[in-house]
Amino acid sequence: MPPTYQSISAQVANIIRDELNAGTWKDALPGERQLSERLSVSRKTIRKALAMLRAEGVIRTERSRASAPIQRASKTRRKSGPVTRAALLLPEPIEGARPFTVLWVNHLMTLLHHAGMELEVMAGWKYFGQNAAQSLQKLVGTHPGRCWILARSHRPLQEWFAASGLPALVAGSTHEGVELPCVDIDHHALCRHAALAFMREGHRRLVLFLEKTEHGGDLASEQGFRDGIVEFENAEAPLICRPAKGAASIVRELRRILAMRPAPTGFLLSNSFSYLTVLSYLASQGLRVPQDVSLISRDEEPFLPYLHPTPTRYAAPPAKFATALYQAIKRVIEQGAPRRFDVRIMPDFIKGGTVAPHTGD
User: Cβ distance 72 to 315 under 8 Å?
Assistant: First the structure.
C-alpha cells in the first residue's frame, strides 16, 4: 500500500505527545520558542501542533500560562520502558532544506512511525563547526537513547560520533577512515557515467561544479568524474569548481570559466539549484543549451522536469532513499554501536534535452 503522509505540524504533535507520555514534561510544557529551537521548526508550526493537542484533550492552555498536560487515568498511561527514537542532525532547519531532503525525511518519519518509532529533527551550525565537541556532548547527553542520523556531515562531525560509540549512521557518504555506516547515492558510479556521456558526444573540456564544503559524496563525485574522463586517450583534465554557496559566487565562477579559450562545453552540476543558476546565466549571455553548452544535473528535484529544455539528470526516488535509511537504522540499533557498512543506491539516468554532440574544436 502507498505510504501515508503527515504534515510537519502533525509530526511535531506526535513527538510532543510521546514526550508527555514518557513523562518529560510533567507540570508544564516549554514555551513556543524553546519548543521551536528543540524541534528545529518554526513557531507557527509549534502553534499548529499545540492546537491539535488541545483539540485532542492532551494539553490545556490558560491565559498567560504555559501549556500543561491533562492528567489521564492510569489505564491510559504509557507502559514504562525505554522509547526507541531516531534523531536526524542537520546544519539548518528542515524548512530550509532542499525538496529532495524534505521528501525523504517525510517518508522516513512515516516508516519509523509505523514501526513504533519517532524521528526527531535537530538542527544547528554549532554542531557542525570545527570545535563542536562541547555542543555535541551536551546534545547527546540531553537526548539519550537515540540512533543518530548525520546529514550533510563533514569529517569532524563523523569522527566525533565514530569515537563516541553511540548508535549513528551517515545519510550521505562517510569520509575515508571514518568507521560509521552510511547510506548514499553511488556518486562515484554516477559521475563516471556522466563523464562518459559527455565524452561519447565529443566533449573534451568538462567542468564539475561541487559545493565549497566538501562532503563525502562530493569527494566520490570528483574521483568518479576523473575516472570516467581518463578512459578516453585524448581527454583533458576536468576543471573542478567549488564556489561558495549562493548564485553570486556561481556566476563569478562561470564568468571566469567561460572567458577561457577554448571554453568548456560540458558542465556537470552537483545540485539542482546550481543547475538553475547556470542555465539562467547562460541564457542571459545568449548561449544556447544544448547547442552551445551541454548540461547534466547530478541530483534530482521535483521542479526539474518543468524546465525547458528538460534537464538530463540522475534520479533516485526519495522513498527509495528513505527505505534504505530505515533498514540501516534497524541494523544499527541491532548492533548497538557503530560498525562500518555502506549502502549505495544507483539512480536512474534520465536523458533529457540538455546534452548534444560537440563537433567544434
Answer: no
110-117 long-range contacts, Cβ below 8 Å, gap at least 24? 110/3, 110/4, 110/5, 110/6, 111/3, 111/322, 111/323, 111/326, 112/86, 112/326, 112/329, 113/6, 113/14, 115/326, 115/330, 116/84, 117/84, 117/85, 117/86
Residues 6+ apart with CB under 8 A from 141: none
Q: What is the pLDDT of residues 31-81, one digit of tens each?
A: 888 888 788 788 888 888 888 888 777 888 765 556 766 655 433 333 333
Work out the number of other CB atoms within 10 angstroms of the CB of residue 190: 27
DSSP letter string, 154-183: -HHHHHHHHHHT--EEEES-PPTT----EE
Cα separation, 16 vs 62, in Å, equals: 18
pLDDT at 20: 81
What domains are there in the chain, each with its CATH number? 8-183 (1.10.10.10), 187-315 (3.40.50.2300)
**CA atoms of 351 and 345, how far apart (whole Å):** 19
For residue 25, give the C-alpha cell.
514534561
Reading the block at residue 73, the C-alpha cell is 487515568
Helix (H) or strand (E) holding 228: helix 216-229
Please state, in angstroms and as integers, the Cα–Cα distance from residue 208 to each residue in 168, 191, 253, 277, 334, following that order.
31, 9, 12, 14, 39
Contacts of 121 (CB under 8 A, 6+ apart): 39, 40, 41, 87, 88, 90, 93, 94, 105
List strands edge to edge, sheet with 168-171: 118-123, 85-90, 146-151, 168-171, 182-185, 342-345
Query: Measured between alpha carbons, how far is 111 from 108 in angstroms, rounded to an integer?
Result: 5
**Cα(241)–Cα(267) distance, rounded to whole angstroms?**
10
pLDDT (tens digit per residue) in 191-247 = 999 999 999 999 999 999 998 877 888 999 999 999 999 998 888 899 999 998 889
In three-state secondary structure terms, 265 is coil
Residue 132: all three cell numbers together = 563542536
User: CA 348, 218, 106, 337 torsion: positive or negative?
Assistant: positive
The pLDDT assigned to 73 comes to 43
Strand partners, 312: 296
Q: Is 284 helix (H, G, I), strand (E, B) or coil?
A: helix
Strand partners, 343: 183
